[in-house]
Specification:
196 residues; 2 domains
């Protein structure tokens, strides 16, 4: 059984994303992240850290392009092109770090939807990289409520994974930055009690 689901900013249907609901599965709650920057300290750190990369990268790009028409020899033109090409990755990384948190804060409420049913939690991502992730609600499901100033997060899936260096790290998934986090947390706890 598939349920058509998809909502835009105004709550109107903009896309249809089929949820693979089971025969006895019913929709209990749906929502999306609250708009805005939620981890301001992290966002400000990324922006400050990325600013030198952005400034140096853009400066190198413009300097190389400015020197290119003045090049008297092929070697000078090659150097100008090299400086321009050398600045592109720095400018790109800087732009990602400086503008990424702002873009994510603006697009997350539009592109991410959270759905809770009586059997599973669904995270639906639309937009540029669409995906559907399903996390079953079991009695052993790790559950955590992380309060925030404007919105809170309900973590309902975590696992230890090794990174590229071989170090263990915890990967969490859940309903991030939602307004009704306490309500959703209690609903999931109630579901866990019914499935025991």
């Amino acid at each position: 059984m598939y349920a058509d689901y998809g909502a835009g900013e105004e709550g109107g249907i903009v896309t249809v994303y089929p949820l693979p609901l089971g025969p006895d599965e019913t929709l209990l709650w749906e929502g999306s992240p609250v708009p805005g920057l939620h981890q301001r300290a992290k966002a400000i750190f990324l922006m400050v850290f990325g600013s030198p990369f952005l400034i140096v990268g853009v400066s190198l790009i413009f300097h190389g392009l400015w020197q290119l028409p003045k090049a008297g020899t092929f070697a000078d033109a090659g150097l100008a092109l090299f400086v321009t090409a050398f600045g592109v990755p720095f400018g790109g990384i800087g732009a990602f770090l400086v503008f990424g948190p702002v873009i994510e804060a603006r697009t997350a409420p539009r592109d991410i939807r959270y759905v809770l049913t009586n059997r599973a939690a669904y995270v639906v991502r639309q937009g540029r990289f669409p995906s559907l992730k399903v996390y079953p609600i079991l009695p052993s499901t790790a559950l955590e409520l992380e309060p925030g100033a404007r919105a809170s997060t309900v973590w309902l899936h975590s696992r230890l994974e090794r990174d590229s260096d071989g170090d263990l790290g915890t990967t969490k998934a859940g309903f991030e930055n939602i307004a009704e986090a306490e309500k959703v947390y209690l609903m999931i706890r109630d579901l866990q009690g019914k499935t025991e």
